[in-house]
Amino acid sequence: MELDKDQTVMSEDKKPQDPNPRFACEGCSVLLDVNDGDRLVFARLSGGAILKIGNKNYSLKPLIGAPFGSLFQVETGEDGSFLSRIFPIKQENSSNNVMDDSRDNREIVDNNEAQNLTGEEIEAMRREGAKGDEIIEALIANSKTFDKKFQLSQEKYKLKKQKKYAPKLLLRRPFARSICEAYFKKYPARIGFLRVDALSLLLTMANVTAYSDVLVVDMVGGLVTGAVAERLGGTGYVCNTYKGSAPYPVEMVRMFNFSDKVLERIVQSSINELSSANTASPEGNNQQEGVCNAENNINETSSTSDIMVEEISATTEAGVVDIVVPESKVIKAAKAGAKASKETIEMWRENGFSSLIIAAQDQDPWSVAKDVLPLLSYSAPFVIYHQYLQPLATCMHKLQQGKMAINLQITEPWLREYQVLPSRSHPHMQMSSFGGYVLSGIRISTT
Amino acid sequence: MLPTESKKALSFKRYIEDGDLVIVYERHDVMKPVKVSKDAVLQNRFGVYKHSDWIGKPLGTKVFSNKGKFVYLLAPTPELWTLVLSHRTQILYIADISFVVMYLEVVPGCVVLESGTGSGSLSTSLARAVAPTGHVYSFDFHEQRAVSAREDFEKTGISSLVTVEVRDIQGEGFPEKLSGLADSVFLDLPQPWLAVPSAAKMLKQDGVLCSFSPCIEQVQRTCEVLRSDFIGKFSEIRTFEVLLRTYEVKEVKMDTSSMVGESHEEDNEGMRPCKRKHRSNEDVTVSQDNSSNATSVVMARPCSEARAVLAGYIAWRTVNSTPALFSDESLPAEAKDKQGLDYKRKMDDGLWTFVDMASGRYLWRNLKEMRENSQ
């Protein structure tokens, strides 16, 4: 192993430029995972940010400065309830004798009479400052049916109570993957039902890498643009293109916590500008106008999305969907989406784009593709995502007839998640059967 | 293979040069990598191709053989490379590769550890993801395969991004000098649970570990080790199965005449079952339509033979932040603690499993014993 290479890498790591930020700073966007994936909330950390868990509001201030991956728990003190950081202790793994456990639920009747403690008694305990774990112990002691349960059922019961009375909050960094998953669970229509594995397929098949120039038709709120920008890491360009005169909104880009270096690389330009032989209009006026319009567009959309923290939740045991109280100020206006400069457009005309991703909802893929494909270099890969199969089939057929591309393939990604626990491994109860279709190919010279 | 600041990998102005690696494309399932050399030729069923004809041509164009048949010359990408590389081991295909890279949260600048290297399929995609400032450290216990992998990385031009070392990760763990430096760790081993403790040491906080296994028993064992021994260190443990289904697209004649009141025998001569079968086997071109009631429709349906894609189970973990990493170093180091990672403090928190790396046996440390030693 070459020693100098290691040393270079190691010294690079000691530099402040960690590719992924490790600490949650003020003003950055975070993903809050309540109770191990039951509820996912995006938040922007500020002194005034609040999160509602159960029926109480908790300030998010303790989270500022904490490393990503920290776990927080609800505590009750003199000033009321607050979030405090906990360092988890190992719990005894008791699933060893499961096979010998012969208990089952034949005698357990679900008549709501199993628990002796009433709601008021529990609330009183909470007010007196009882810890969540203490409440759970009390619940178990007062349950008539607990001892009759099969061991694994007991564990399931305990976990359920923990989630309600001792909820935990995990501070996570938002990443293309977590943002996509969260949206797919709660608002899939906004991202055109683009599932995580489909998104990852788009990025790979389009050969997204540093120093590449990726052309994107993004009508899924900016998710694809953000994911591409993430993989570019501050080099190359991701150019959002559009028909007509107004770029499609890309407000999701703001959730990624991009540095300025990365944001600069996200630009936009209409199909007409990219295709036409000369940029007819003078540089000065149009550029400024374009930038103003783009920024206004972004600011407008950002002001609506800035107020509310995106509330995304899966089926929760708690069952309540809560809204986060708005923060007091707008933290930072996005700089993404600036108009591409004339020089850059010239460069793209000379070299062509190195790849293309189309995620255009409600648009016929062929009518989009036929306009943007000529902007690609020869031998450049492209991917077209669509919710429906038939339009892609037609598009593929036309591309074949026009001999514009080779290696054409329509793929449907399939994803299944499993629960893997001792004696309890099985696929998750719900599986997404639908994540869209992807048409991929390589552009070739038609001469 | 990868673009640099000064040189675009793909460009209208990029012409093939002597020494370039190109992918010769005959059909979607017949491709091969070729190093361009001005005196060399390529021979296939279409005839003879002189490399010298290729030099100076742009990529993505046709080149012709002496018999007038053509192939395409394409720029290499990690996807194409995965399809054409020589298999020394079973490899990962694009479905798993794309998913892994996404979930490992690899971005430019990251440091990624991988074991085993195998045939370098995933390594190539990882190199692309970390370029230009990151690095991939790849380990394989098979000396010959490590050599072949290094050669491949030279060929594809990514050897500055990937370092291959011969090492038995299951037996010895990852090298100490990489401790705490890895953003992500990927394991494709027969017994990944043996490598988990070492992987945990390598990872930065909030780093991601992924283990890929073809068998559910391996996944179960790995998940068990992670959950019971590293609670608080790993969170968000998830297991996935990933597959791709491909579709074939054909243009097919469909009889759209109404069922009532027409005799099918005369009108739709070409539509009898036996003839229809013949037609639908043709590729895309439409033949003459003599029946006014038939329309041509482009149809898609799943391929009857799925391409052999290894559907593996992928188990994910994220390393939580641990307080021990931030504690002061003034505590006396344990006799066994050679790495200086403050084991003592971590041990007070719970029961830890020590894996005797040399023999693969588990050594158990009792919590009580630890407390006694510290006093």
From TrEMBL, chain B:
Key words of the record: Methyltransferase, Nucleus, S-adenosyl-L-methionine, Transferase, tRNA processing
Binding positions (S-adenosyl-L-methionine): S119, G120, S121, L122, D140, D168, D188
Feature: compositional bias, Polar residues: 283-296
Region annotation Disordered: where it falls in the sequence: 258-297
UniProt xrefs under SUPFAM superfamilies: S-adenosyl-L-methionine-dependent methyltransferases
EC number of this enzyme: 2.1.1.220
Pfam families cross-referenced by the UniProt entry: GCD14 (PF08704)
Top-tier EC class: transferase
Primary localization class, coarse: nucleus
Cellular component terms per the entry's GO annotation: nucleus; tRNA (m1A) methyltransferase complex
Domain tRNA (adenine(58)-N(1))-methyltransferase catalytic subunit TRM61 C-terminal, residue spans: 69-314
GO molecular function: tRNA (adenine(58)-N1)-methyltransferase activity
Xref: Gene3D superfamilies: 3.10.330.20, Vaccinia Virus protein VP39
Example GO biological process: tRNA methylation
Catalysis: reaction(s): adenosine(58) in tRNA + S-adenosyl-L-methionine = N(1)-methyladenosine(58) in tRNA + S-adenosyl-L-homocysteine + H(+)
Cell location: Nucleus
Family: Belongs to the class I-like SAM-binding methyltransferase superfamily. TRM61 family.
Designated name of the protein: tRNA (adenine(58)-N(1))-methyltransferase
Species annotation: Arabidopsis lyrata subsp. lyrata (Lyre-leaved rock-cress)
Species classification: Eukaryota, Viridiplantae, Streptophyta, Embryophyta, Tracheophyta
